[in-house]
Amino acid sequence: MSSSKINLLLVMEDTLRAGSIIDAIHQKVPSLHLRQAKTTAEAIKLLTKYDVEMVIIELTSASGLDIKLRLISLLPATTLLLVLGENVLSNNQWLTKAIRYFGETNQPDHPISARGIRELDYQELAGVALDAMGDAVLICDLKGQIIYLNQLAELLTGWPAKQAIDKHFTRVVLLIDSQTRRPVDCCTQSIQEDEKSEHLLLKRDGREVPVEDRLSLISNAEGQIVGHVIVLHDVSRTWVISEKMAYTAYHDSLTGLPNRPLIEERLQQAVQMAIRHRKMVGMLFIDLDQFKLVNDSFGHSVGDELLQSVARRLQDCVRTSDTVCRYGGDEFVILLAEIAHSRDAEQVAEKIIQAFAAPHQLSHRQLIINLSVGISVFPLDAQNCEMLLKHADQAMYLAKGSLQASYQLFQEPPELVNKS
Questions:
Q1: How far is CA 166 from CA 131, 137, 162, 224, 238, in A?
Q2: DSSP state of 220
Q3: What range does the domain containing 272 cover?
Q4: SS3 assignment, position 61
Q5: Same structural domain, 409 and 260
Q6: CATH number of the domain within which 148 lies
Q7: DSSP 102-131
Q8: Same domain for 168 and 211?
Q9: How far apart are the two ends of the chain, measured CA to CA in Å?
Q10: Left (φ > 0), alpha (ψ -120 to 50) or beta: where does 194 sit?
Q11: Per-residue confidence (pLDDT) for residue 401, from 0 to 100
């Protein structure tokens, strides 16, 4: 091997990202010889030509793992390795050398110290590189005491490094199970290594941040476990997006009401609760009379505004524990959870009909629209959710036979009643 030396070799495709890391390191130690290799093959060539003291590899995907492992196999025992990127610490094969300098470079007999390098602080150098990551990184010893955290970890937890060092992990990183609200200690509980988990992080100021966390073990050159690495990824933005997607999937875009999939899910839950508590479930199926005439006469924009007004008025007529749903077009469904008598459902229908006697105040006009309401009750009229909806729909069509707004209770067809 040539006597020429590279202090730090960056193995990453992104030239701009590599440049930002190189600039940050040069600000700390301007005299270092730094090189970038865009490919693993290029890095292997440099390793055969130069004496490389430290290698930083960025993993952007699982592809090319074999050649990256070959690169690691070529590294001398004295070469330090740091793995960055989305898949950091995701494979234990990387961990034999990765980040081990945190526990070893201060030892007098360590090979790095034997080289007599005085101007270069490898812990500081590694810290600069870790600060360039997009995730919070904390390193703990086997007792769970923090020995390092990068700048993103400081920002995410609200703990400055000077105050966090030597404190137990659970004092700085308060992870909470989002379902049970119980605290989680990933350093001491039997969590599978490198398994991603999602929890809530309780920041020092009391705010909660959804995070994806992953625990990995640090092994020294002899393969002994000497500590833990915890990587925290802030998923606030992802969580907000997923929440919006979930809301969109289960709510009507025009009225904001629950849609058909959500009402069917809630109906299943309501029936189970009614069975457990020996209660009833009321189902109201509502259709707007002559709504097509509104669209044809005034346009769809007026029709949409009327549907929004109808949705608000229906919500004003029920309890917060009930669910108003836009079932489709000009049809609405109301789920009355845990009622005591079928008369309770009739009273709600009467209240709705009375409320709709008043005109709807729209942007440029007032409109009165009548509705037909069909009622079915579990378990009197149906033994399952599907039939409860179907029977309420059938009762609604009976109500439509009236010349004015009305409601109708479900009734078995005469031929079925006679047979029974």
A1: 20, 15, 9, 21, 32
A2: -
A3: 251-419
A4: coil
A5: yes
A6: 3.30.450.20
A7: HHHTTSTTSHHHHTT--S--HHHHHHHHHH
A8: yes
A9: 97
A10: left
A11: 77
Return the CATH number at 284.
3.30.70.270
- Identify the CA nearest to 194 among candidates 164, 223, 215: 215
With H, G, I as helix, E, B as strand and everything else as coil, classify residue 403: coil
**Judgement on whether residues 120 and 161 belong to the same structural domain of the protein:** no
The DSSP 8-state label assigned to residue 76 in this structure reads -
Phi/psi for 387 (5° steps) reads -70, -30
Long-range contacts of 263-269 (CB under 8 A, 24+ apart): 263/323, 263/325, 263/327, 263/333, 263/335, 264/385, 264/389, 266/323, 266/335, 267/335, 267/385, 267/388, 267/389, 268/385
Tell me what percent of the residues of the chain surpass a pLDDT of 90: 38
Final residue in a domain of this structure, among 248, 274, 299: 248
Same domain, 123 and 141: no
Give me the residues paired with residue 59 across strands: 85
CATH number at 75 reads 3.40.50.2300
Q: Same domain, yes or no, for 316 and 224?
A: no
Residues 397 and 327 in one domain: yes
Quick one: 366 exposed, middle or buried, by C-beta within 10 A (0-12, 13-18, 19+)? exposed
Q: What proportion of the chain, given as a percentage, has pLDDT over 70?
A: 74
The token duo for 396 is 């609604």
The predicted-structure confidence for 101-123, as pLDDT tens digits, reads as follows 333 333 334 333 323 222 334 45
Peptide bond into 379 cis (omega under 30): yes
More confident residue, 95 or 366: 366
Tens-digit pLDDT profile for residues 221-250: 566 777 788 888 888 877 667 777 888 889
- Say how many domains are in the chain: 3
Is pLDDT above 80 for 367? Answer: yes
Q: Residue 378 in contact with residue 404, Cβ under 8 Å?
A: no
Identify whether residues 340 and 403 lie together within a single domain.
yes
Note whether 211 and 275 are same-domain residues. no
Chain centre to alpha carbon of residue 278: 37
Q: Which position has the higher pLDDT, 67 or 338?
A: 338
Q: Please identify, among 201, 230, 248, the residue that sits at the C-terminal boundary of a domain.
A: 248
Contact 418, 402 (CB under 8 A): no
